[in-house]
Amino acid sequence: MISLKNISKSFGSTMVLKDVSFEVARGEVVCLIGPSGSGKSTILRCINGLERHDGGEILIDGQPLSPSTLRAVRGKVAMVFQRFNLFPHRTAAENVAEGPIHVLGQPREAALDRARALLADVGLGDRCDNYPAQLSGGQQQRVGIARALAMSPRAILFDEPTSALDPERVGEVLKVMRKLAEQGMTMVVVTHEIGFAREVADRVLFMDGGRIVESGPAKAVLANPTQARTREFLDRVLNPL
After folding, report:
1. Which pLDDT score is estimated for 241?
2. How would DSSP label each residue in 11-66?
3. Is the CB of residue 90 less than 8 Å from the CB of residue 129?
4. From CA 184, how far away is CA 155, in angstroms rounded?
5. How many CB atoms sit inside 10 A of residue 206's CB?
6. Over the stretch 165-174, which tens digit does the pLDDT of each residue have?
7. Winning range, highest mean pLDDT, from 65-69, 85-89, 109-113, 135-139
8. 8 closest CA partner among 34, 46, 44, 35
């Protein structure tokens, strides 16, 4: 479904991705973990075309990512951001319907009907007419997930979807993501939620310094990493004191 081959990316003189290669199969859940600044979010932004990679090749469903294919690729791969990026002057349902109306050309009422159904699926059926300021952070993030689903994507990229939430709200977002995984959605998730990665991910990629240091089945990597740098990172995350 998603293939990265020898991807490199620099911001000015700083190289943030160094020869990154991996594949994500259809229906697979892959979690990217690692310290801040290791390149995890940049990978997602390159996959979705929000950043242009400098070298290497990205293929989505066999189609190379390029300026000419960007629109088609974004129709296949949706993204859920760390910050919710909702339109403050639109209701939850209107936020979800925005893409189908203006990008897919769907009739407004049909798009709003589907938006309400998707909001119900993420536990917000009673919040369709609320504005973002009237919603908690967890609720806003679930609106963001519904907005991604409204585009009928073949894969969803999650960029630290719980990092901006109060601890009490994290569980409600992870519950929705677990449900998507159970339904077979292809997902690439940048996360610090190691318990979620252990439970839901098929594979984990540990990144440091713009490179993939270790990859493998989630339970194996998280329980018994082979690389010293991975062990050090997990020890600090799981035993912060």
Report:
1. 65
2. ETTEEEEEEEEEEE-TT-EEEEE--TTSSHHHHHHHHTTSS--SEEEEEETTEEP-
3. no
4. 10
5. 26
6. 777 778 888 8
7. 109-113
8. 46
Closest CA to 161 of 152, 172, 153, 150: 172
Strand partners, 17: 9
Decide the pairing of beta strands 203-208 and 29-33: parallel
Q: Which of 75, 65, 55 is nearest to 6 (CA)?
A: 55
With beta carbons less than 8 A apart as the criterion, state whether 147 and 132 touch: no
CB contact set of 82 (below 8 Å; sequence gap of 6+): 41, 159, 160, 161, 163, 164
Task: Taking residues 188-215, report their average pLDDT.
Answer: 94
How far apart are alpha carbons 148 and 106 in whole angstroms?
A: 15
In the numeric block, which tokens belong to residue 112? Answer: 């709003």
Q: What is the pTM of this model?
A: 0.91
Largest CA-CA distance found in the chain, in angstroms, rounded = 55
What CA–CA distances, in Å, run from 124 to 89, 93, 127? 18, 10, 5
How many degrees, rounded to 5, is the angle at CA 149 between CA 21 and CA 142?
A: 100
Nearest alpha carbon to residue 191 among 160, 165, 217, 166:
160
Q: Which residues pair with 32 in a beta bridge?
A: 190, 205
How many CB atoms within 10 Å of residue 194? 17
| Residue showing tokens 């990665």 | 197
Q: Which is it for strands 203-208 and 211-217: parallel, antiparallel or unpaired?
A: antiparallel
CB-neighbour burial class of residue 240 (10 A; exposed 0-12, middle 13-18, buried 19+): exposed
Instruction: Say how far residue 44 (Cα) sits from the centre of its chain.
Output: 7
Q: Which of 214, 155, 224 is nearest to 189 (CA)?
A: 155
Q: Please compute the mean of the pLDDT values over residues 195-200 and round it to a whole number.
A: 90
Give the type of residue at 36. S
